[in-house]
Amino acid sequence: MAKTDLTAETQNNLKSPKEFDFTSRDFERVRALIYQRAGISLAASKQEMVYSRIARRLRATGMTSFAAYLDWLETGKGDDEWEAFTNALTTNLTSFFREGQHFPILATHLKGKKGPLTIWCSASSTGEEPYSIAMTLCEVFGTLTPPAHVIATDIDTNVLATAQMGIYAKDRIEKMTPERVKRFMLNGKGSQAGLVRVRPELREMVTFKQLNLLADNWAIRGPFDAIFCRNVMIYFDKPTQGKILSRFVPLMKPDALLFAGHSENFMYVSDAFKLRGKTVYQLADHAESAGQLRSHLA
């Protein structure tokens, strides 16, 4: 990752009184390490966020400076800490049926298909997205036990633990329709009042796994009917995005769909995909063959 010169204002912020010394060199080391480890490109404006999150790791490990903590990681003495370091710098903003235009498209795509169907949610965070996919599958087939399965992965083991429990505060489901809440959620009682839990049928539909998209080997197997890779590519540079997209291709069925986040555009990254709709893609080979077939039939 290329280094970025810090502005005078940024340097002043880094020099402001803090519990731990945090220099521009410390910040650049963090940026380099998280890029090497997870492919995440931290902007130069993220120094305060980095300080806040990694300072918690210093307190937890008993380290007295960023330099000592980073030395500890780099020398291999803190191997068990790498996961906590990565988790600390991972942003996990999500909600049920976020970017809701995608779910009717998924439903239309799956209607008429026979199972078993498999969807991969590649950045599952705390579970709202894969559970939204599972609810959509139930609605397509009209049953809580459709012939379908969702593989949900994330690099952050902390959020995966939350996702597997499927327990959320009630304010997390405020934007869901009353019909969906009644069908797919269970209300907590007593000490659990104010909480809801995803029905067991839905939890059984989803398998959560830890997976780093930059790892040499992915512990999943296709082919998938759809892949959700939303709001994660924005943290990677273009070469890394291209590498990940190329690895999606052999895991997708010929007519599979790839869903991206609202601010992501894969058209300038890979020629393996064609735009099907706003932030929805399909394999270019399938799009071309489908177009040729329509032309022939016409």
Write the topology of this structure.
Blueprint: H1 8-15, H2 24-38, H3 47-61, H4 66-74, H5 82-88, H6 102-110, E1 117-121, H7 128-141, E2 148-154, H8 157-165, E3 167-169, H9 178-184, E4 185-187, E5 195-198, H10 200-205, E6 206-210, E7 224-229, H11 238-248, E8 252-260, E9 273-277, E10 280-283, H12 284-297
Parallel strand pairs: 1-2, 1-7, 2-6, 7-8
Antiparallel strand pairs: 3-5, 4-5, 8-10, 9-10
Helix pairs in contact: 6-7
| Poorly predicted runs | 1-15, 289-298
Structural class: alpha/beta
Largest sheet entry: 7 strands, mixed
* Mean of residue pLDDT values: 84
Say how many strands there are: 10
Fraction of residues in β-strands: 15-25%
N-to-C CA distance: 51 Å
The radius of gyration over CA amounts to 22 Å
The amount of helix comes to 40-55%
CA-based shape: globular
Number of helices: 12
- The string of secondary-structure elements, in order, is HHHHHHEHEHEHEEHEEHEEEH
- Please list the strands of the largest sheet in the order they lie side by side: 6-2-1-7-8-10-9
